[in-house]
């Protein structure tokens, strides 16, 4: 399989990997607990875990800290990101080069689970959790130390929202094991139909949507389409549909709130890839619009001058469908 090259946008947007690592902290524990519980990997010792498109290792760090002592393979296509992760020397983590549609260094049926993640926020106050979808049975909040056995496929949605990527993910998963996906989505980077908590976040979301570089992201919700398209057919082709992952997807969501000073919110906003690649003049225009919104007199600040940033940690999961019964009529 020929290796996919990552786009110039991704290469340039994430070139300052140490800054990316600093301004994109980790995930709220409750959301991670619930996802890994849904993936049926909680409490499994020595789980074989892959972190696909691991970036600088935000999620990898959570896995490496587990008492279950995972065997972790972190897969990352960006040289600087990979180097930043390797510098952390995380216990039990092997870092390799690869993309969602080309994990040629990985053998078939290697992993117990696979997760795609995207980091966004920190200092979470969990407000509410909602779980829906396939095979959901009153999931309970578990302590963080009960999480395990994950193969993670992190990334820009564009890295795995296609059939070749699903085929490659299916290949490296053990039969019937699960793919998980998780995103921290601030209100200002959310889909258009999501309710906004504040007017300033609504204004900045409108700004975000004007910065279109033609790459699919969570807010475009095209990641769902690659799963739905597994069953795309005409009346004549339905019998030949060849789904790799089960539908409907299981889904969950945790609201979060984090208080940051305005400059730190700007620094976090600036790590969004479509903003990170802007030229100096355009970036200054965006910065001016950003601060016009967040400096409005109606924006609530605490005694330290911090502003509440709101959003959701959204996660989804699906089981891989074994090949033999489907293709051989078994």
UniProtKB/TrEMBL annotation:
It holds the Pfam family Methyltransf_25. It comes from the Eukaryota. Residues 49-122 form the Methyltransferase domain. Keywords: Methyltransferase, S-adenosyl-L-methionine, Transferase. The keyword Transferase applies. The keyword ATP-binding does not apply. One of its GO terms (biological process) is methylation. This is Methyltransferase domain-containing protein. InterPro entries: Diverse_substrate_MTase (IPR051052), Methyltransf_25 (IPR041698), SAM-dependent_MTases_sf (IPR029063). GO terms for molecular function: methyltransferase activity. SUPFAM superfamilies: S-adenosyl-L-methionine-dependent methyltransferases. It comes from Endocarpon pusillum (strain Z07020 / HMAS-L-300199) (Lichen-forming fungus).
